[in-house]
Design goal:
mainly alpha, 64% helix
């Protein structure tokens, strides 16, 4: 299943059991920040920093955790992308994932972005 399909189908919820309880409240913007950092690190893997792949995967795992309790399907889509990167070296489209996260909680994201004076 590709990233876009995982985000659009209920099938993606089966990829992440969500059976562990995270102590953090969901944060759409924190998820987006982790995905943005992963994007940068993935690009750096092509510039003689191959070990940045591990750090990027860590940020993607953090992004999953940030939305797991509120948006299990979105967390699952991020997980699918991370595992494809980890196991098959398929680079995730972090920008697509960021857009999907914002769309998953448009109202909260818009409010938080407004408070930070960030325009979409």
């Amino acid at each position: 299943m590709d990233q876009k399909t995982a985000m659009q189908t209920n099938e993606s919820t089966t990829q992440c059991s969500g059976q562990y309880d995270t102590t953090r409240d969901p944060c759409v913007l924190c998820c987006c920040k982790h995905l943005a950092q992963a994007h940068v690190l993935i690009k750096e893997t092509h510039k003689d920093y191959p070990h940045h792949k591990w750090i990027a995967m860590g940020h993607m795992a953090e992004a999953e955790d940030e939305v797991l309790n509120a948006h299990k399907a979105m967390a699952s889509a991020i997980r699918v992308a991370r595992l494809q990167y980890q196991n098959d070296d398929i680079e995730p489209d972090c920008c697509l994932l960021i857009d999907a996260v914002i769309q998953a909680d448009e109202e909260l994201a818009a409010k938080m972005l407004e408070e930070m004076n960030i325009k979409r």
